[in-house]
């Protein structure tokens, strides 16, 4: 993921695919491949790797959250919502899941449910330590708060 952090996506994919070849049952490698593909807007590939990660480790909530984002990008809103709901059943205290779910709901025109998810996200976010508040999340919070009024 060092290459991913440096935005060298081709190198990141190559290294992660090699790692997956060497050990095909490492769920974290499949998850990281999903992240790289999602970031490069290769949504079908992201779907494949997030699904693989879920099959290998079904109790990791972030896999379901990112699968939900991917499914929404692929135009399957209903399945996207199901993935987010599964993520929340696994980890109801993660404000990132609520925030991303709120964004998906908002982008699909469901304003009231989006507000509810955003409020839950805010409640959890306010309880976080300063070190746990990711800068990217701060930007997304501000944008959604502005749009929701």
From TrEMBL:
SUPFAM superfamilies assigned to the protein according to its UniProt record, in alphabetical order: TPR-like (SSF48452)
The record's Pfam families line, in alphabetical order, gives: TPR_8 (PF13181)
What are the alphabetically sorted keywords of the record?
A: Repeat, TPR repeat
Answer yes or no on keyword Mitochondrion.
no
- Outline the TPR repeats, range by range: 61-94
Domain of life per record: Eukaryota
Which GO BP terms, alphabetically? Answer: cilium assembly; protein localization to cilium
Its family remark reads:
Belongs to the BBS4 family.
What is the name of this protein? Uncharacterized protein
Protein's organism: Favella ehrenbergii
